[in-house]
Each structure stands twice: as C-alpha cells, then as structure tokens.
Known about the structure:
This protein is an alpha/beta fold. The protein has 13 helices and 13 strands.
Amino acid sequence: MLDRKLLFIQSTFGDAHQMVRFFELKKHYREAQLLAFSRMYYESTKEVNFINLGKVRHGHLFSRILVYFNALKIISSQQSDDRPSDIYFFGFDLLPWLALSRRFKRSRLIFEIPDVRDKFFQKTLMTNLMKWFFKSSIKFVSAVVVTSELFHSRFLRVNGIQPKHWFLLENKVHLTDNELKPKLQNREIVIGYFGLLRCERSLLVLKELVDKSENFKVVIHGYFMNISEDLQSAIINHSKISYKGTYKSPQDLSEIYSQIDVSWVAYPFHDPQEEGNFRYAWTNRYYEAGFFGIPMIGNAHSGDAEKIIRNNFGMILDLSDITKAVNDLSKLDKEIIQEWREALSKTPVSEFMSTDEDYKPLIKYLQS
C-alpha cells in the first residue's frame, strides 16, 4: 500500500470511466480523496463521497477561471502536512493551474489525457498560446496517462512533447460477464447508438436510413449534447427510432447491447481534411461493443477505424457525404453481420476488458 495520499480530481462527477479509474487506483493507497467538478452530465452510478470543486459549463473556457481559482484552494487544503500526495487529474485546461502553482511542489502530478480539444488544432493566436502553456506545464508533470497509444505517437511526439514518464490505460470495459440476454428476432437490422449523443451528422444519417429503408430500426440510449431541438424532436418521435433516455454504465450495458445487431461507434464527425481528436481517440463504444461481441459501424479517418478494418469487426462510413453514407449503410445484411460476429468471437476478450495487468506499469511507477 502506498503511504502517499491520493487526490483524484474528476473533470466531471458522474463520468463512469473516471469513476472506475478512481476505484482501481484507490485500492493501492492508504488514503484517497475524490474531488470533482460538476456539470450537466449523467448522474454518478456509485454512491461515493466527494468534495465538490464547483460547476463548470461545457465549452466556456474563460468562465471557468474563477471556478479553477477557488478549486486550487480546496485541492491544496486536502494535501497532507506529514506526507506528500499524488494528484491524478484530467483536462488540458486544469493542467497549467496545477503544474505552475507553488502549492503543489511536494506532490506528484499524474495527468490523464482522455481527449484533445478541437481548439488545440486551430491556427489562431489563442491556439498558439494554449500550446505554449501546455508545453510549459507538462515539464512539471511526473507522469502522463493516455487512453490511446495514438495520443503519444501521433500527438505528443509530433508536437515535440516528451513527458518524463507515460503510460497507456485504455478505456476498456470494467466488467467480467459479457453474456447478453437472448435478443428478440427482428426482421429488421437493429442499429444502436449509445452514450453522449453529440454528433448531429450521425443522427441525420441514421434518420435518413430508416426514412428510406424498411430493413432497419434504430435504438438510442444517451444524453443529447449540442443537438438542435428540431432534430431531437424528430429523433424522439420517429416511428422507426426508439429513444430510451439515459442509462447507467456499466450496470445497464448488458441490457442495452442485448437489443441490437450493430453498434454505432462513430466518433463525432469532423472534416477529414483537418486534424483533430477523432484521429487519435479509441472510443468507449468500441470497447463496449467488442466486449459484447457486437459488430461496429465507425467513421473514416478515426482512430477506431484502423482497428475495425484491420480486424474485420464491422464497416467504416465516410460521414462527409451523407447520401453516400446512407447508401452504403443500406447494403448491410445479416450475412455480413454474422461474419463480423465470428471475427469478434475469435478475438481475446482482453482486447476490450480491463484487467489488473493493464494497471501494473502505472502502479509499479507510483510505488517507486
């Protein structure tokens, strides 16, 4: 057991994967404290005491300055006087506050990169300033954790950023039972779209597909984010689309994946000519669908696309052309879906399921 105190800072209280990360790391510390920012998001799936660091708004970076200033005082007050702390945190915007503050010089900072903001790839004065802050701050971080190896090889390294230590912790499923309930036999092919519903292009493609073809149904579970009210209404009231509200992860995953034939794992659409987080991220949906043996539909140029194509786990669509994407999707049949299922069944479940082995390199470093 580590004698240091763990201060674990959630960027969003209720984020299932961050919560799982906390409980996995907590097992190795004598004392651990969860601190979290709150925002419009899913409710937490676990009963756990935490210290609220304040409420932040999605996409409003400058409005967070006062919130972060107050949060630093709270975080600092949780450090032990008699022993150093390990501060595990998420988010580029919080990085310079922790790294450049004199309050945390006795603590080790462990920074996890779950994604990279789109603003980081824009060619503006503000972007250059953000990059400068990031490069200046990363020097004071003891270790960096990435959820996709591509964040290290194609983002950090390409931008000349070399952390002192880095570790790979993919957002794999923290479950052991991947048995699904028997699925009702449908004449139609059922496509499932689960999680944060923030890709308007994905919703438009799925809506147009069921408008044009009687061979498909769509099941949606999740939380709409930055989707127009008109499109939300059209989705919720569509006769061939079942919108079933939010769900709890991981408790409800088996039930919702039992309802579908194919999972929509496509990352929110971006112009394929641009750089962006979509090129590096390995999505939660990829691991969830793979864990339950459900074939996948991904979008071209994404981090997931390479794995899906290489392993024959499903199909890839170019969402830059909605008409072509719908036409390609309409050719999907149950024979090819079965071929993808067989490829998934031959894949070790450790590709999608988290184990103690995944955490060993990081834990060994923390114990040093």
